[in-house]
Write a structure and sequence with these properties.
Blueprint lengths: L2 H9 L1 H12 L5 H14 L3 E2 L4 E2 L15 H4 L11 H21 L10 E6 L5 H9 L15 E7 L4 E7 L6 E2 L9 H12 L12 E8 L5 E5 L13 H15 L4 E8 L8 H10 L6 E6 L8 H11 L12 E3 L5 H5 L4 H14 L12 H40 L7 H23 L5 H4 L19 H26 L2
Parallel strand pairs: 3-8, 3-9, 4-7, 9-10, 10-11
Antiparallel strand pairs: 1-2, 4-8, 5-6, 5-7
């Protein structure tokens, strides 16, 4: 795209945004209106300053609504009266989540913070088991297996089941892997992605590549999570010290984003005050713990330890004044490795959890804050509310970024439009090389530079020379230095002892 046209589009972005605000008012659904506004706003934001061009996303402006919202706002034959209100609300939620996902896939998160849920915790805290329970997808959960890269998990309710997997390197275009039609094939898809990245059984490092898994199925909630590599400090045969450092860096980078909700998964087998995610949030990224939702796992492992169980009950009820989370705590009971090896199903898992939470010390704990079913509802509601509350700030950041990029483009000056303009531009560039040479030699042939009045030296012996005429200035300063040494050398030598 022509650079001059790019500048015009950026320059007129504010006026266009006003038109977008007006056009969005005609959209009936609140979430669709917000999504449409975000879509058009970000269209004017994606600027590559290095190449002075915009991404070819402008071509979609001719479409009345974003592609991700066509199902939400399409004039389909099904009248509203025949669709249950819950289904309509579900579709609106899906459209809003899809739009945020689209912005993430365009790397908009590198420009402004976008609302998302970050899953963090120590190794062996059962983060993968929590994801499997949420999605009914068999993620690798063995203690010998650890996540070597951030993983975006997007769950979307759909009539047909399919799994879409892609790898998103830091500075390279994402690579899409073959689509799968069965959720049970997810572990194979993850293994295929690991091979693409270069991870094998001997790998001990943590990678910055992002693995994105999109699961479309009838029985999954509308939810998007970012699962981070487990935190650890001790080096072993399977993990390096450098990998541990990278894991903490990744966690801090994601958790520091002001619009991220932090899902801190804590094993009841450990001291919560020493948990990596809690410590990192409290000390570095969220001292008030206002964005942290705690998840207690492996509570069944301490069932026979009355003291430990009571400590975690007090923690979950908010009685530990040092670890009060604004978003509270939720308690889960996942399958053990032995139960998983025996082939326990998702229904078996949920039944065992229900029995444990109903018959153990946790029976006194509020029902809405325990169990996987309530956890799905909580996360769905939490993320939806978080997105809605974050949107005004996102739009404000968009406008600020547009202004900054507009100013940056204007500082670059007019762009060359033909061969002659390009030749003149290159001639001006080479003049920068000749000008310092002339200043050193004292030729001063570049009149546009050397003849312009500039700040002059205030040195009493330099003759008020123009600071741009470097050779003359140095010569006069040398003369002044020589004169001082001749007239005052005795005093100088005496003062030096």
């Amino acid at each position: 795209m022509d650079a001059r046209r790019d500048r015009g589009l950026i320059k007129d972005s504010n006026a266009t945004l006003k038109k977008v605000y007006l056009s969005c008012s005609s959209v009936s659904s609140e979430s669709s209106r917000i999504s449409l506004l975000l879509y058009y706003s970000f269209t004017f934001l994606i600027v590559d300053l290095a190449q002075i061009q915009l991404l070819p996303v402008y071509s979609t402006l001719s479409s009345p609504v974003p592609l991700s919202l066509t199902a939400l706002e399409s004039p389909g034959p099904v009248p509203s009266s025949t669709v249950p209100a819950l289904q309509e609300l579900h579709l609106e939620q899906k459209g809003l989540f899809d739009t945020i996902d689209d912005l993430h896939s365009l790397h908009i998160g590198r420009i402004v913070d976008l609302p998302q849920i970050i899953v963090a915790g120590n190794q062996s805290s059962e983060k993968s088991s929590v994801l499997s329970a949420l999605s009914h997808v068999p993620f690798p959960t063995s203690s010998a297996v650890c996540t070597r890269f951030p993983m975006e998990l997007a769950l979307r309710t759909d009539q047909e089941t399919r799994i879409e997997v892609s790898i998103i390197p830091e500075d390279v275009k994402k690579k899409k892997l073959p689509t799968r039609s069965n959720k049970d094939e997810t572990p194979q898809a993850i293994e295929e992605a690991k091979k693409e990245i270069g991870i094998n059984e001997n790998t001990r490092e943590i990678y910055n590549h992002v693995l994105r898994i999109e699961i479309f199925a009838p029985n999954v909630p509308n939810l998007t999570l970012v699962d981070l590599p487990g935190l650890y400090t001790d080096e072993s045969l399977r993990q390096s010290r450098e990998g541990g450092r990278v894991a903490f860096q990744l966690a801090e980078r994601y958790m520091s984003q002001k619009r991220s909700i932090i899902l801190a998964v804590v094993s009841a087998n450990t001291n919560v005050e020493m948990d990596g995610a809690i410590v990192l949030a409290k000390k570095n990224v969220d001292p008030s713990l206002s964005r942290v939702l705690g998840v207690v796992t492996q509570a069944d492992r301490i069932e026979n330890d009355h003291t430990a169980t009571q400590l975690y009950l007090q923690l979950a009820k908010g009685e530990d004044k040092m670890l009060i989370l604004k978003l509270g705590w939720h308690v889960l009971r996942n399958l053990s490795e032995e139960e998983a090896r025996l082939g326990c199903s998702d229904d078996d898992r949920d039944r065992k959890e229900s029995e444990f939470l109903s018959n153990s010390a946790w029976r006194e704990y509020s029902a809405e804050h325990k169990g996987i079913d309530n956890f799905r509802k909580k996360l769905n509601r939490l993320l939806l509310e978080h997105i809605s509350l974050s949107i005004p700030g996102v739009i404000s950041d968009i406008e600020e970024a547009i202004a900054n990029r507009t100013a940056a483009l204007e500082q670059l000056g007019p762009s060359p439009v033909d061969v002659l303009d390009t030749r003149d531009y290159l001639h001006d560039v080479t003049s920068f090389e000749r000008t310092p040479e002339q200043a050193v030699q004292g030729s001063y042939l570049n009149r546009d530079f050397f003849q312009i009045p500039t700040q002059q030296t205030d040195h009493p012996d330099s003759g008020s020379l123009d600071v741009r005429k470097l050779r003359a200035l140095v010569r006069e300063l040398n003369r002044a230095f020589t004169a001082v040494m001749h007239t005052k050398r005795t005093q100088i030598l005496y003062s030096m002892g």
